[in-house]
Amino acid sequence: MQISQLRQRLRALGANPAHEARVLRHWALAKPQDSGRRRNQHYLPQALREALPGIEAELAGLARLHSVHPGEDGSERLLLSLADGLLAESVLLPRDGLCISSQIGCAVGCRFCMTGRDGLQRQLSSGEMVAQVVQARARRPVKKVVFMGMGEPAHNLDAVLEAIQLLGHEGGIGHKQLVFSTVGDERAFDTLMTLGEGKAKPALALSLHTTQPELREQLLPRAPRLTPAELVARAEAYARATGYPVQYQWTLMDGVNDGPDEIEGLVALLSGTYGVLNLIPYNQVDGLPYRRPSWERAAEIARTLHRRGILTKLRQSAGQDVDGGCGQLRARVLAPHRR
Ligand code: SF4
Q1: What is d(CA 97, CA 75) in angstroms, rounded to the nearest whole number?
Q2: Would the ipTM clear 0.95, i.e. be above it?
Q3: Where does the Radical SAM core domain lie (predicted)?
């Protein structure tokens, strides 16, 4: 179910914008505190009141909790059963964050990513994305939602933006706390830049991974052919327009993108930009040739970059990895699941 279809159905049942918001808020906030709907039900049109139990059952069936896998740092991986039996994954992060999936599988095919190996299975609907938040909220408060789980949000752009609008309005998430993560895509940049007045504008995370165009083509073979310099220029324009810094994501792989050439490239590319570089030491995946660098090496790179004026964060715990890295969640989440 796409949220736009749900909105149309509510309107067809006689809902005005206030009724519609009340019903959607009750769903997305996932709390009975919307004395809301139950107590105010009699304010809804009769046709909507009568249809509501069926609609609520449909919404509840979008994603059901399948299993919960706690992490050592307080994160929790949630496996959710969708109506067609496929499993979607979300991760509850420390400090009220939630990482959600936008697709089952992914077509970008990054060489170092487990999800990329299997290609795209299907898109998630905007309803299924919000349903991940609803399920998470049944366990803990959620105040930040990052679209960094399975899938490339730019490849399911309309549905992701629908989910963002609902979460940023009826869903009670601050707009800056909604994070759109991408490998970089012209249409996504254009669309985000032209979101109109009153629309929720998310913060941007850009998966960079290298400053070298040829290496990027090798590592991300089906990502759009934008060079790292072009990507940073597009992201930077969005950051300046919204006032939200860009999160540049860098999965650090031993002997691949941890050398002095990349340090020089990063200093040249990111000096003076409005962003933060997240270094995420690679989480090794069985069957893939990439290796995690030593912690000392990663810390040295972070220190060097910091000294040279690049705001750099070295991510070290499971929740922080998820917070910082497309593909890393999938490596962590899927590897044990597939063994
Ligand atoms: Fe897709 Fe992200 Fe994996 Fe690349 S790292 S294949 S974009 S899920």
Answers
A1: 9
A2: yes
A3: 92-321
